[in-house]
Write a structure and sequence with these properties.
By secondary structure, the protein is mainly beta. It has a single domain, classed as Peptidase/esterase 'gauge' domain (Methylamine Dehydrogenase, Chain H). The chain is built from one helix and 31 strands. The chain has a five-stranded mixed sheet, with no helix packed on it. A five-stranded mixed sheet has the order 2-27-26-25-24, with no helix packed on it. A hairpin with a 3-residue loop joins strand 8 and strand 9.
Length: 382
């Protein structure tokens, strides 16, 4: 059946209003959230048929101003249905499954140390992460009165730790969350009620406050890959100037090659960087993706803002149908081979879209919606 998506302009308004009151929110990052998406369709410049690729060896190709366009090959993965339909949001990883109930009132971690996490009164679960070592479930007050409460579970021992207003650094109402192999990143309050980035070391449990936004500015869309954190910062101009950069202590360094003030998604690994820009402010859900590796600068084509995730050494993002006869697709960028592949396509065409993919460390899960049928499927990666 047709699916209605939230108007993307609401996401932009949410970012700016949160910035104005000293808070921020990651649009489209939580269970069922679609603030960075809409029904707008993108016309991809390349077909999904197999086509020549840019060289992955020899002299570097392209430049920041003139990246080499990469046409995707079709390389569909072996996807398996996830039990329970498409309404609960499921993330699969190894022996573990993290399921956020419809409406976000609870999350169920199934595996060697099963656990149910309740959202609490007047709250709902807005973020749920799973990797090979930890699960992180974030509950946000629907009235925006109390700071977030996050439950961090060590998958090896089953031990749970709570991050809340009493933690050091404390949580705040809303804001970005990210889980990495060694750290958790979230928003916190700093000196003079400033809005800052907090990093929690998963080994020691200690936290620190790093970069802080200027008054009426903010940040969102944090991503942790290895030991590297990237995120999007924005100011209070209209339209807002957005910059994607690398967080290091109290500094944020812009990623090279990103169009000034247009950044949205970002990821940085040892193999290189992937990012997106939003060319038109009135269509904030329509993004264009790029990559940079040791072999050159690459144009990956159009995609949906807010859909980038790195999993098993590759980066994935979604693309809406370019016409009534095209499916919605999930694309994989493999930096080592400079290859772009279509790894999933919806059953239906035209009125179809994908929720942002979810990485479980060793598996990738995606939920798709189309007139030909909705499904939630998973596949091993790595």
């Amino acid at each position: 059946m047709p699916v209605r998506r939230v108007v993307a302009a609401a996401a932009a308004a949410l970012l700016l209003s949160a910035c104005g009151n000293g808070s921020s929110s990651t649009a489209g990052s939580g269970p069922g959230a679609t603030g960075s998406e809409s029904g707008a369709r993108v016309s991809p410049p390349h077909s999904i048929a197999t086509s020549p690729e840019s060289p992955a060896s020899g002299d570097a190709v392209g430049s920041p101003d003139h990246p080499v366009a990469v046409a995707p090959r079709q390389d569909l993965l072996d996807w398996h249905p996830v039990p329970g339909g498409t309404k609960p949001q499921v993330t699969v990883g190894g022996r573990w499954t993290l399921t956020v109930a419809t409406g976000g009132h609870s999350a169920r971690l199934a595996g060697p140390h099963p656990r149910t996490i309740q959202a609490g009164d007047h709250a709902s679960i807005t973020d749920a992460f799973l990797d090979g070592d930890h699960a992180l479930v974030v509950s946000e007050d629907r009235l925006a009165q109390d700071p977030d409460v996050a439950t961090l579970v060590d998958l090896g021992t089953g031990r749970a730790t709570t991050l809340d207003r009493s933690s050091d650094p404390p949580t705040v109402v809303g804001g970005t969350w990210a889980l990495g192999p060694r750290t958790v990143v979230h928003a916190t309050s700093g000196p003079h009620r400033s809005y800052c980035v907090a990093t929690v070391d998963l080994t020691s449990g200690s936290g620190s406050t790093g970069w802080c936004a200027e008054p009426r500015h903010g940040f969102s869309r944090a991503a942790v890959n290895g030991t590297t954190t990237t995120m999007m910062t924005f100011d209070n101009h209209h339209p807002s100037c957005r910059t994607v950069g690398v967080v290091a202590g109290t500094d944020v360094t812009p990623l090279p090659g990103v169009t000034p003030c247009k950044g949205w998604d970002s990821a940085l690994t040892d193999a290189g960087a992937v990012w997106s820009v939003v060319p038109k402010e009135r269509r904030i859900e329509v993004a264009h993706f790029y990559a940079h590796t040791a072999t050159g600068w690459y144009d990956l084509g159009p995609g949906t803002s807010g859909s980038l995730v790195t999993c098993g050494g590759s980066s994935y993002f979604t693309r809406d149908p370019g016409s009534r006869t095209d499916p919605a697709t999930l694309l994989r960028w493999s930096p080592d081979s400079a290859r772009l592949s279509v790894v999933y396509a919806t059953k239906g065409t035209g009125n179809a879209f994908l929720a942002p993919p979810r990485c479980g460390g060793t598996a990738l899960t995606v939920t798709s919606f189309s007139q030909a049928g909705d499904e939630q499927v998973t596949t091993p990666v790595g």
